[in-house]
Specification:
It comes from Bradyrhizobium valentinum. Keywords: NAD, Oxidoreductase, Pyruvate. InterPro entries: D-isomer_DH_NAD-bd (IPR006140), NAD(P)-bd_dom_sf (IPR036291). This is Glyoxylate/hydroxypyruvate reductase A. The protein has about 325 residues and is α/β, with parallel strands linked by helices. It folds into 2 domains: about 110 residues, Rossmann fold, CATH 3.40.50; about 180 residues, 3-Layer(aba) Sandwich (Rossmann fold). The protein is built from 9 helices and 12 strands. The chain has a 7-stranded parallel β-sheet. Strands 2-1-3-4-5 form a 5-stranded parallel β-sheet, covered by helices on one side. Helix 1 crosses helix 9 and helix 3 crosses helix 5. It is elongated and about 70 Å long.
């Protein structure tokens, strides 16, 4: 029996999202299954049963009348959810140990960077200035993580083992061993008030859009040993009010920021973030998706699904993640 085709719709534009790179990986793990790299005029859309996508154009997925499952190749599904023509089939998000480990690396790197005053030390190096400041211990700092899913819980655990005080906040109640957990609107302010370094790993939904704003920043701990609280956003660009971030950096409401995501990507060349002295900027590579791991993950899910098994990590369309 012929296996249903897998269509690849990859619109990245950078080296890590090379469509040919992804096709070669899927060809290697989808034995006996046609893997179609779109656009490709030589196939029948009715043959496509599965789609593996990154930033597909609105309407592209509606072209497949027999589509059974959509696999999103990155962690965030907000762009897909905004497509009103998206077929009503299961939408599966990425959840592999490789991606989780990469995000934890990023979060820990940037927490340590601000904790150990690296921006100041690198500025001193450029100025050839030998002027170390007093360094506080990790136990004097509370890292607050917004989003206690797979990514947030793993980062929290590693930070805790490094000696930081760690708190977490989520929409719904969560329990993470050794982490002070808060949830819901009623506990949000208490979470913010004890936070020195705020890490945002929330999904982007209508409820979370622009949640990173001045009123929130003003509630962060004003007695931080860092001098002023720090923001680290490795979630989605739409979570942040960028004008508020810039103003709060300039007036001291925030002491620094590490940003991996932006409202517009690639970040425009005229963005003030590029040259801001209190911003550490990265090009949305906090947790790059690895084609080897993700292609195996998708192929395994398809084989199990066709054998009558359940799909893992299916997005709840009502919640948006």
């Amino acid at each position: 029996m012929n296996k249903g085709a897998l269509a690849l719709l990859v619109h990245g534009g950078t080296e890590n999202w090379s469509p040919q790179r992804w096709k070669s990986r899927f060809d290697a793990v989808c034995e006996g299954r046609p893997v179609l790299l779109l656009p490709d005029a030589s196939f029948d859309p009715a043959e496509v049963h599965y789609a593996a996508v990154w930033k597909p154009h609105p309407g592209e997925l509606a072209a497949f009348p027999n589509l059974r499952v959509i696999f999103n190749l990155g962690a965030g599904v907000d762009a897909l959810m905004a497509d009103r023509s998206l077929p009503n089939v299961p939408l599966v998000r990425v959840a592999v140990t490789d991606l989780t480990a990469r995000m934890t690396e990023y979060v820990v790197l940037h927490v340590l960077m601000h904790h150990r005053q690296e921006p100041y030390l690198r500025e001193s190096q450029r100025a050839k200035r030998w002027a170390p400041k007093s360094q506080w211990a990790a136990g004097a700092v509370t890292v607050g993580i917004m989003g206690l899913g797979t990514l947030g819980a793993d980062a929290a655990d590693v930070l805790k083992r490094l000696g930081f005080r760690v708190a977490g906040w989520s929409r719904n109640p969560k329990t993470v061993d050794g982490i002070e957990c808060f949830h819901g609107e009623q506990q949000f302010e208490a979470f913010l008030q004890r936070t020195d370094i705020l890490v945002c790993l929330l999904p982007l939904t209508p409820e979370t859009r622009h949640i990173l704003n001045r009123p929130m920043f003003e509630k962060l701990n004003r007695k931080s040993p860092l001098g002023a609280p720090v923001l680290i956003n490795a979630g989605r660009g739409g979570l942040q009010n960028e004008a508020d971030i810039l103003q709060c950096l300039d007036d001291g409401t925030l002491g620094g920021a590490s940003l991996d995501v932006y409202a517009t990507e690639p970040l425009p060349v005229d963005s003030p973030f590029w040259a801001h002295p209190r911003v550490v900027l990265t090009p949305h590579n906090a947790a790059d998706t690895d084609p080897d791991e993700i292609s195996k993950y998708v192929a395994h899910q398809i084989e199990r699904f066709e054998a009558g098994g359940a799909l893992e990590n299916v997005v709840d369309r009502n919640r948006g993640y």
